[in-house]
């Protein structure tokens, strides 16, 4: 899908269509924030918490896959916590060896295609599959998962706004 630099203009009574539009939009915001940063800026933290833009991008790729593929669909995914050091969900974010901004952005959009397919073929009231991410807890509905992932994107896009402004002064969407 083409990236839009304006908030989705879709005004639909279909919540799945709204989720798809906004998730696509925020993936585009993330891409615009990442694109244009030098390798040094991508791998340097300017924040007390210590995360870098490339680490945040890695987190978003894994986060969406954890919720929709491993969580909702119940499919096994390689290294579901691969965005965290040692695969420990409580550990700081890390970038896998060999990952680049380009490869991570491609993975981000591939994950978006998978998410779009889930949201267009499943009922939002359906609960995630038993097993996978939800092996030891009740699985939430697809609607809850979708809105959780949307808030993750919105929050982290705001974080990238700050990181980008500190890196090179770029502001806005």
What does it look like?
The structure is a single chain. This protein is mainly alpha-helical and 173 residues long. It has one domain: dinb family like domain (Four Helix Bundle (Hemerythrin (Met), subunit A), Up-down Bundle). α3 packs parallel to α4. The radius of gyration is 16 Å and the shape is globular. The mean pLDDT is 92. This is Mini-circle protein.
- Could you spell the SSE succession in H and E letters? HHHHH
Using the 3D structure, state the CATH architecture: Up-down Bundle
Mean pLDDT: 92
Described by strand count, sense and barrel closure, the largest sheet is: none
Number of strands: 0
In helices, the fraction of residues equals: 40-55%
Strand % is under 5%
Rg measurement, Å:
16 Å
InterPro entries: DinB/YfiT-like (IPR034660), MST-like (IPR007061)
Protein name: Mini-circle protein
Organism: Xylanimonas oleitrophica
Layout of helices and strands, plus pairs?
Blueprint (H helix, E strand, L loop, with lengths): L14 H20 L4 H4 L10 H20 L28 H21 L20 H27 L5
Helix pairs in contact: 1-4, 1-5, 3-4, 3-5
Short note summarizing the structure:
With 173 residues, the chain is an all-alpha fold.
Q: Descriptors for this entry?
A:
173 residues, mainly alpha, 5 helices, globular
